[in-house]
Amino acid sequence: MDRLIIQGGTTLRGELRASGAKNSALMMFPAALLADEPVTISNVPHLRDITTMIELLGSLGVEVVIDEKMNVEIHANTIKQFRAPYDLVKTMRASFNVLGPMLAHYGHAEVSLPGGCAIGPRPVDQHLRGLAALGAQIEMDDGYVKARVQGRLKGAHIFFDVSTVGGTEHIMMTATLAEGETVLENCAREPEIIDLADCLNAMGAQVSGAGTDTITIQGVESLHGASHRVIADRVEAGTYLIAAAATGGRIRMRDANPDHLEVLITKLREAGAEIETGENWIELDMHGERPKAVSLVTAPYPAFPTDLQAQIIALDCIAEGTGTIKETIFENRFMHVHEMNRMGARIRLEGNNTTAIVEGVRKLKGAPVMANDLRASVSLVIAGLIAEGTTVVDRIYHIDRGYEQVEEKLKNLGANIQRVAEP
Ligand code: UD1
């Protein structure tokens, strides 16, 4: 298992390009199962989560062709199996979303209940309720969801009880092949949902309203092939912006959409960063200053993303003043806090572990650390960058799930970081 060794104290400076959005790209694979012809996805990031999804489709017998530029061509009509096994679904929650498309296209599917990051209970009740409303007969058997339908699914009016990104995407794509109209209410509004709707529409679907809380789908009988380019990864871009701000640095993110990072940009300006933006770039300059502490509450888009919470806590650790960070999306998403405290941070958890109070200190001290989730792991890399001495971040396979070439990108910005294989 690899680890990252970081000598802290460097200031990040330079230019880098945001990769394609992991969370968007991941959903295009299940979506491609709806089509009768090959679907080509470009700007796919080279990540472990993507490899897991490709393996999952491979286990269904689906042919996936990848070229050297990570253009991925998916041939759904080569499917041979309709059962997604536990050992692949458990490692990544997004893989659960193959259930609806297989069901809608082929009339039956079996998918293991999902796993994913260890961040609290993450049920799929909204997914299952949505599929049932579209006419699926659902049975639970030994950890597997077995779904069937006679003929086509039927359009329905569905109201989500919680704002769920994966649930909205799952039911939106499944409904494209249902008979008649589906109206989804209280939908999540993340940019990745718009990206998926664009991909589905390129395949001949009729989806409107993605990005608002009401999405309408006019079902069609079949979907055809298409090519679609994935949007930029706002979480990756946001992570590097926070890292640069925490080190007092200056970076220019290319191929990033500032409209998708409005709240983060506001928060980083509050922290003292000078930020300029263009259509597809963001430039941040801290002028070597220590950041000022920021406070925030995570909530569904367009509010502050839970996926950038851990990184902001890293910044608050060495900021001037005290920041209050409240997590409202996931329970148990503060594992990084204990590791940061071992590095000399002063963070306490309150409100039944829903709120972190971060009292800024001038310096962190390097230490061996590790985390069990993707964003927590990368936040420890940021902590390592701003710490004195050496930090060793263990279990970095979590980072490889969601950050493409993390150490190369950071090295290009001047970080002293290297990957070593664990003895
Ligand atoms: C997606 C993102 C993830 C991000 C999260 C929240 C992908 C691949 N992953 O995850 O990076 O952290 O959105 O922005 O896009 N819930 C239910 N019942 C359900 C579904 C969800 O109660 O059926 C709850 C969850 O437990 C959680 C909240 O709803 O508390 C939000 O989860 P959801 O938006 O579904 O997250 P994911 O789609 O899994």
Estimate percent helicity: 25-40%
Largest sheet: 4 strands, mixed
How many helices? The count is 14
Number of strands: 26
* Beta-strand content estimate: 25-35%
Catalogue the unreliable spans.
none
Q: Give the termini distance in whole angstroms.
A: 8 Å
Going across the biggest sheet, name each strand in turn.
23-25-1-26
Rounded to an integer, what's the Rg over CA atoms? 21 Å
List the ions, cofactors and other small molecules found in this model.
uridine-diphosphate-N-acetylglucosamine
Task: Please tell me what the overall shape is.
Answer: elongated
Structural class comes to: alpha/beta
Mean pLDDT: 95
What distinguishing features does this structure have?
binds uridine-diphosphate-N-acetylglucosamine; alpha/beta; 31% helix; 423 residues; 4-stranded mixed beta sheet; 14 helices
Task: Put the structure in a nutshell.
It is built from 14 helices and 26 strands. By secondary structure, it is α/β, with parallel strands linked by helices.
SSE topology sketch:
Blueprint: E1 2-7, E2 13-17, H1 22-32, E3 39-42, H2 48-59, E4 63-66, E5 72-75, E6 83-84, H3 86-89, H4 99-106, E7 108-112, H5 125-133, E8 137-141, E9 144-148, E10 157-159, H6 165-175, E11 181-185, H7 191-202, E12 206-208, E13 214-218, E14 226-229, H8 234-246, E15 250-254, H9 262-270, E16 274-278, E17 281-285, E18 296-297, H10 309-317, E19 322-326, H11 335-342, E20 346-350, E21 355-359, E22 364-365, E23 368-370, H12 374-386, E24 387-388, E25 390-394, H13 397-402, H14 406-412, E26 416-421
Parallel strand pairs: 2-15, 3-14, 6-7, 10-11, 18-19, 22-24, 23-25
Antiparallel strand pairs: 1-25, 1-26, 3-5, 4-5, 7-9, 8-9, 11-13, 12-13, 15-17, 16-17, 19-21, 20-21
Helix pairs in contact: 1-2, 1-7, 4-6, 5-6, 6-7, 8-10, 8-12, 10-12, 11-12
The protein binds uridine-diphosphate-N-acetylglucosamine.
Uridine-diphosphate-N-acetylglucosamine binds at residues 23, 26, 93-94, 122-127, 162, 164-167, 188, 192, 306-307, 329-330.
